[in-house]
Specification:
23 helices; disordered N terminus; membrane; single chain; 562 residues; MFS_sugar_transport-like; MFS_trans_sf; 6% strand; 69% helix
Length: 562
């Protein structure tokens, strides 16, 4: 099956094409012209016409203002990056391990039950049970997406201060509990806000960029860890932990200066305010722009202000129809696959490097930092291409490549790891650990924010993202709790578990993952209502359009082709 190619602007002239290609607009490809009409191959006829009529300048004042607005929301992802990587970095420091009496100094990093508890159990308790109960209602409530972001960031600040000043393990565990709760709330509110503020033609890249900021936090904390690890005092591990205060502080300071999500405005009955936001950032200031009117119409049609919407505890809309169940399946697939594709080993990279024969603590920390940079490059490239390659294609081949690189890491570590006289073989294992980080980040970093937010319906998005956080936390239990115990007992053989699971993931993605590129969030409803959502998501239409007096009209729509 072939997917529709994306053009970058109207095809009235070659100069226009070059201009709009620079601006990266997602507009259907003109495949032929007949009797003055342009024959286009598209997935969504209404959206195609709206995008052809409404061209956005990425360098306009409104667009730059939108980027700055979204950067504030990106701080939620950066906070998540700190939470995900800073413990992995300090876990490789003997100063931290000795201070808290954690085993693993000889293994290159903390392993065993104590590390499993710090990384796994606490995170699962607050992010799953408490987080899922609070995150959705807070984000859907009267304070909107901004309220969810503010509350989550405030809790992160409290948790970061607590773990930075920890004097013993219970103190540290308490801080981890609070910090994880805050991350769970921002992980629900921030991506929901980003996907709802982004124009449809830029949604893939801007939403994917949200998760890419994870690596901004990762690089900062792992880089600082290299320098502070040379200190013999507790500052060696307290300083990286303290840096987590920065992104949360930015989010708390600026979130109330942001406009609210237009979808939330419509759900709250404030249609005029929604139209104002859409006109400014999606319609070049024109409230009557075809794209603005299309979005408003679809928002109003899709939002269901029924009783279950008003009951904060009622999550039944995630499973009460076949449409909802398929959407939830897609969300859960990304939640579990995004944690079980081998990336869970990233928390214990210093242990992996030790297994590969790296004896120096400083070198292990440097390699950990380099891996973060390589992964960030992969994430950035993936983000730039997700609107071109499509979600389904990136997901499948990224998972397949992850399995392939992990196979090589496993073989090289088994043959040339510790106690091996072949440094080239050990270096090969390290190189493929880096390559795994690149291909995983290429596919999963943009898609982890994009797939669940696109697949969930508007009236269930906040609660659905809370359930997504639950799925991520439950999946994380396997890697974060079982991981250090398995690494202590069976070493590199633990990698084989992830290889086998990645192969299973590829099968599931091939048969069940839908393609969401080229659709409005509301139009996806038709796909999930279809008897075969995968086939429907890959279908295309041919429409004939003609420009009359500056207006674009649809002459006819041909049958769908697959």
């Amino acid at each position: 099956m072939s997917s529709a190619k994306e053009s970058t602007g109207p095809s009235s002239s070659s100069s226009d094409e070059k201009h709009d290609a620079k601006h990266h607009h997602v507009v259907p490809t003109v495949v032929a012209e007949k009797e003055g009409a342009k024959l286009m191959e598209v997935k969504n006829a209404d959206l195609a016409v709206a995008l052809t009529s409404t061209q956005l300048d990425p360098l306009s004042r409104a667009s730059i203002q939108l980027y700055l607005i979204l950067v504030v929301a990106f701080m939620g992802s950066m906070s998540n990056g700190f939470d995900g990587q800073v413990m992995g970095a300090v876990n490789g420091m003997n100063q931290y391990l000795n201070y808290f009496g954690i085993s693993g100094a000889d293994a290159g990093g903390g392993v065993g039950t104590a590390t499993a508890l710090i990384f796994g159990i606490v995170s699962v308790i607050d992010r799953s049970i408490v987080g899922v109960l609070l995150a959705g209602p807070l984000t859907d409530g009267k304070f909107g997406r901004r309220g969810g972001m503010f509350i989550g960031a405030t809790i992160i600040l409290i948790g970061a201060i607590t773990i930075t000043t920890a004097l013993d393990k219970p103190y540290l565990l308490g801080g981890r509990f609070v910090l994880g709760l805050g991350v769970s709330i921002t992980a629900t509110a921030c991506p929901s806000y980003v996907v709802e503020m982004a124009p449809p033609q830029w949604r893939g890249r801007l939403t994917g960029l949200f998760n890419t900021f994870y690596y901004a936090g990762s690089m900062l904390c792992t880089g600082i860890s290299i320098a502070t690890a040379r200190l013999s005092t507790t500052t060696s591990w307290r300083a990286p932990l303290a840096i987590q205060i920065v992104p949360a502080g930015i989010l708390v300071s600026f979130v109330w200066f942001l406009p609210e999500s237009p979808r939330w405005y419509v759900s709250a009955g404030k249609v005029d305010k929604a139209a104002e936001v859409l006109a400014k950032y999606h319609g070049n200031g024109d409230v009557n722009a075809p794209l603005v009117q299309l979005e408003l119409k679809e928002f109003e049609e899709s939002i269901k202000l029924d009783a279950s919407d008003k009951r904060w505890w009622d999550y039944s809309e995630l499973v009460n129809t076949s449409n909802a169940r398929y959407r939830t399946l897609m969300m859960l697939m990304m939640g579990f696959f995004g944690q079980w594709s081998g990336n869970g080993l990233g928390y214990f990279l210093t242990v992996l490097f030790k297994n590969a024969g790296v004896e120096s603590q400083e070198r292990r920390l440097v390699l950990n930092f380099v891996n973060t940079i390589v992964s960030a490059i992969g994430a950035s490239i993936g983000t730039s291409l997700c609107d071109t390659l499509g979600r389904r294609t990136m997901w499948f081949w990224g998972t397949f490549a992850s399995a392939s690189t992990l196979i090589i890491v496993t073989v090289c570590t088994a043959l040339f790891g510790q106690n091996s006289a072949n440094p080239d073989g050990a270096n090969a294992a390290i190189a493929f650990i880096f390559l795994f980080g690149f291909v995983f980040s290429f596919a999963y970093t943009p898609l982890q924010a994009l797939v669940p937010t696109e697949c969930l319906a508007n009236n269930t998005r906040a609660k659905g993202m809370a359930m997504y956080s639950l799925a991520v936390s439950c999946a994380g239990l396997v890697g974060n709790y079982a991981g250090p115990i398995a690494l202590q007992n069976i070493g590199w053989k633990y990698y084989i578990v992830y290889v086998c699971w990645d192969i299973f993931e590829c099968t599931m993605i091939w048969f069940f993952a839908v393609e969401t590129r080229g659709r409005t969030l509301e139009e996806l409803n038709e796909i999930f209502e279809s008897p075969n959502p995968v086939k429907a998501s890959l279908a295309k239409k041919k429409i004939a359009v003609v420009e009359k007096g500056g207006q674009v009209e649809v002459m006819h729509v041909e049958n769908e082709i697959v």
